[in-house]
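Consider this:
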Amino acid sequence: MKCNDTLVALNSYMLKMGAFSRQNQLDSVVAICENAYRFAEKHDFIDFVAGNVMIAVPAFLELNQYDRASYYISLYEKKSGYVDSTGMVAKGHEVYYYLKGLYLLSERQYDSAESYFRRELQFGSDFNNQNGGAIGLARLYHLTNKADSAAKYALYGYDMNDSVYIRMATADIEQMKCLYDYSKHQSIAEKERKKSEKESRKVKFLVNVFIFLSIFVLSLVWYFIQRQKNARKRYLDIIDKFNIVQKDLLLLRSNEKRLNRVISEKESQMDAFRSELARFRRRAKMDIRDTKEFQSLQEKAILGIEMTENDWDEVNRLVIEYLPVFHQFISNREYELNIREYRMCLLLRLDVKPSNMSHMFNVVPSFITKMSKSIHQKLFKSDGLTKDLTMKLKGIR
């Protein structure tokens, strides 16, 4: 059973117990109290029952069930939170003194009973509590054969009831006046009936509002608890992910020096290979235009044949072998260009006309013009036509 359902059920038990107590149905009060206690114990809500259990204590005493009365009084003292370590009860709950005194009186612990009745008389917050203390003392002195004291506190209790009786008597007189007016009797009775129904509906409405608000508040509490749990979980997940990324970053940084050394070695090897190729070309006095690869490229450009990956590999080797200075330049800037722009630079340096490139790339001619402007801006940080780009690339020998 959910928490809010449990509270609703326990509230229902308490309301029923109070109703039967006012009707003096003692057996029903005792039965409901025991059922409520077992239910609360099952669902771990003993504190809630402890704060309301004193309603049933008079019924246990009237039925001579002193052990159960003692048990529930002890439960109230330990679990309700209203009784402090000195035995004093919170303001507004002074009826505890009277009920505890009645129990002690039934156990013939007269001195202790007198102490609690006097607390009720002294600290009672209204006439009913003070009257209870006076009546309790009157019963005590009657049992201990102290007639003068018994009479004194009995009269004292009756005196405190005078104001209540006066108010009641005033109301009775007003009612008797109404009864003599026979012509208005039925009207007054109808009004009272409607008033009673209205009060009954009001009580039901307030009970329903209380139940609804209890459920609503508990739902809000549950929602915010879950929200905090989820936020905490997300926070811990982010910390875990942060630690993982941090470890990866530290690992990459530890390998940075080794990677830089490898890159430096590879660049040195490439420079050595370029120098060696240049020596070979000088000795053989080779001309790029005399190579079969260059002539094949020019033929494909004239015929408008689309280039394959193998063709592009041949073009790249041709540039590396015969144009090492240009290759070094374009390789260093390769990261600024996309693959098509890089390849267009190679073709322009190898004397391929821009008008023949659209078929080699399988694009429309306007795309070649647009790509040329983009290359000029990326490599030379300025605007220019395709012929300007061609002249600048050929100037790199």
Observations:
- The CA atoms of residues 121 and 338 lie 98 Å apart.
- The chain has a mean pLDDT of 82.
